[in-house]
# Entry
Amino acid sequence: MSRTRTPVVAGWFAGDEDDFRLLGTSCSACASVFFPREDARCRNPGCSGGHLVEVPLSRRGRVWSYTDSRYRPPSPYVTNPELPWEPYALIAVELEPERMVVLGQAAPGLTVADLAVGMEVEVVPGVLHEDEETTWTTWNWRPTGVRT
Amino acid sequence: MTDDVAVLGAGMHPWGKWGRSFVEYGAAAARTALTDAGLDWRDVGSLVGADTVRGGYPGYVAGATFAKALGWQGASVTSVYAACASGAQAVGVARAQILSGLADVVLVVGADAAPKGFFRPAGGDRPDDPDWQRFRVLGATNPTYFGLYARRRMAVHGDTPEDFAQVKVKNAAMGALNPNARYRRRVTPEEVAASAVVADPLRLLDICATSDGGAALVLSSMEFARRHGVSEPVRIRAVSTVTPRYPSTVLDLPDIATDSAVAAEPAVQTFRSSIPRAAYEEAGIGPEDLSLAEVYDLSTALELQWYEELGLCAEGEAAKLLREGATAPGGRIPVNVSGGLASFGEAVPAQAIAQVCELTWQLRGDAGARQVAGARVGITANQGLFGHGSAVIVMR
# Structure
């Protein structure tokens, strides 16, 4: 039986491979961008408040910083306690057009040794975990020009 | 400028992993602070409790919980929560009650009983809660954020893991002298370097533990202090509990992203540097007036960050300040002579109160082997989840 692919949070990203994008919202009055998406009201205190419309975020950005998780994070992060813990890297990425930093897990196989502050990375589809019925999908950051 | 309030008493229950209820630690700290102040609990008109989210319902109503444990005597109670800044908010509320004339004597209490391992969000599926999101989607524990900040400092300012280790070495040496600290053993740079990496580039000994502990202060009006026979008390001169200004451009716990600065220019100062700045302005002093500082060293690298945010040195020069010994005992501006979180571990709602306890003892000249000679002015600095910061300036 094939699993259903379900985003870990609805509405935060969409698309496949080269079309994959993080989705934020943008204020129609002041152009502020929000990720995670703000759907109720613009949070810029100097804005009179416009409509919030969905916008894809830039695919590429530069590494603001990075780290990794050498120990198993607690719930609600889902892991299989039967399996040994496999550390993964986390990357904070500066998106120049949006002037914001967005955190994400690094694509599988990448370690902190592969990363440097200022390096160009791109957003790619990723899998957070799988259970019997569902493949829970997420976003990953990956250095540009690398296929893992 | 506002008026001062007097610190009549300070008390702590030692930090550790004692396996008992937070109520016990808080009540013990409160009794010690009352004894220190020479006051009976029944003389207290108001109690402000700093909440814990780890003690069930009694933790959410900490003011009443501590009042009941001390013995109901009719005092007004207030309970506040502001993550790691809860203790300073409790001090801020107590001060406001005193300065407005609503209370003469206020008891401030915070205590926690911490779980083993990482802090984790409250139970249940809450996709709208940023604290749930960061764990569910990224597995981003608190130390991973500390790791991001540390790596950024290495890349931008050239800090090294050896610099970070030196913060631990300095603080552990002071903690060894503090009977209230949980870790009372000196640590070598080699021991830091040999400890396991938790969140690259930070190792176990770079990151503060989670602890049990309790701290309390007895605050009063200056007039009450005089009537009570204390003519020159240690005084709280300023309390800052400011929030960020949009757009906040430094990734803060528990957020997955910063604000976007595309529509509004960020303030010249970062949020963290605006926290002590507000306290300096209220007190009418600057960093050059300080005798010592207690800062929130959730990690060794974060202590260095605070040097810059407090204005002890220019941006990027914190490691140099550390290497020169300026922040060690006997230096120009000793930092974390209590031993800091490195020696205590964090007991969340008690920690910002404990920082003020240390300044109180230092300014009275009662800090024993940790005493900073001639200490007259001290500042605390702290930052917690969800846009909470605090700084308290204490003077003699």
Chain A touches chain B through 49 residues (CB under 8 Å). The mean pLDDT of chain A is 95. Chain A has no helices and ten strands.
